Amino acid sequence: xxxxxxxxxxxxxxxxxxxxQELDLEPGFVDRxxxxxxxxxxxxxxxxxxLEPVGVWDDxxxxxxxxxxxxxxxxxxLSAGSGRTVIHEAGSRKMRFGARTMRxxxxxxxxxxxxxxxGNSMEPVLRAxxxxxxxxxxxxxHDGDMYAIDHDGQLRVKQLxxxxxxxxxxxxxxxxxxxxEEYSLEQIERHKIxxxxxxWWGAMFF
Length: 206
What we know:
The chain is mostly beta strands and 206 residues long. The chain has helices at 13-22, 99-104, 185-190, and strands at 50-51, 67-77, 85-98, 112-116, 131-135, 146-151, 154-163, 167-171, 181-183, 193-203.
């Protein structure tokens, strides 16, 4: 086994042990190199969203029957050099999903949009550049589920937990580098934190 402060996956000691516990792996599993064909056994049934491969198509590929295109959300700077951003739909970038599959999961296609994950705060579950789809019809917080939020113009994907008095806790999977953030109701209003929707689908990149 590697020393307690070094891991072959570039993650901290706390995160390494958390992964092993959550995925029922033997102690030290994440410290040893994986063969190319070896995969971590993700507990799909316990995740509040689906992790699936992404289909390949281009703008010229026609929509099939029962298929819908979902737009992406992105941060848009209000004025050149201001540093202030707001979240809008990206008009040209879209992903395709089956409408029947979405409705079977309780998601109305009209309520769904996609989001690109930035940074390493949600590793190892979602790496930078991964895509998730959110259901804007579900903004009520269920503790531990993953949501996209508008944090004063910044688009973030986090696990959310309710706190007494109307506050919320924002949690990252990479807690060694990104500790929990807690906001009271007053701070939520001051920081303009708004839940955009619950993550119902995700594409995980390794």
